[in-house]
Amino acid sequence: MIYSDLKPRRLERALTQEHLAHDLGVTRQTIIAIETGKYNPSLELALRIADYFGCHVEDIFHLDTKGGGYDE
Predict the structure, then answer these.
(1) What digits encode the pLDDT tens for the residues 4-42?
(2) Residue 4 class from Cβ within 10 Å (0-12 exposed, 13-18 middle, 19+ buried)?
(3) Is 1 strand, coil or helix?
(4) What letter does residue 67 receive in the DSSP assignment?
(5) What is the pTM of this model?
(6) In b/e form, how buried is each residue of 13-52, taking b as 16+ CB within 10 angstroms?
(7) Angle between the 43-53 and 17-24 helix axes, to the nearest 10 degrees?
(8) Angle between helices 17-24 and 28-35 (to 10 degrees)
C-alpha cells in the first residue's frame, strides 16, 4: 500500500483541494482520492506533485513494506 503526505503539505501552504487540483490540472476528486488513500497517482502525476512542492516523490509518497511481503 502507498501512503501519502499530500494533505499536510497542502495545508502547510494553505492550499485548498480545488486550488491544488487546478494548479496540477486534475479534478478536486483526484486530490481527495489521493489524500484518503483511495487512489494512487500515475508516475507522471506523482512527479508533478513532487515538483509542485519542490521535493522528491519519496518525500510525499511512502510504500508500506512491512505488510507487503517485499524484501529489501
Answers:
(1) 999 999 999 999 999 999 999 999 999 999 999 999 999
(2) buried
(3) coil
(4) S
(5) 0.86
(6) eebebeebbeebebeeebbebbbeeebebeeebbebbbeb
(7) 110
(8) 110
Which amino acid, 12?
E
Copy the grid coordinates of residue 4: 501519502
3-state secondary structure of 64: coil
pLDDT higher than 70, residue 69: no
Which of 3, 1, 19 has its CA nearest to residue 11? 19
- Kindly state the DSSP code that residue 68 receives in the 8-state scheme: S
Degrees, nearest 5: CA angle 34-38-39 = 55
Strand partners, 63: 2
Instruction: Record the cell numbers describing residue 41, joined without a space.
Output: 497517482
Contact criterion met (CB below 8 Å) for 10 and 20: yes
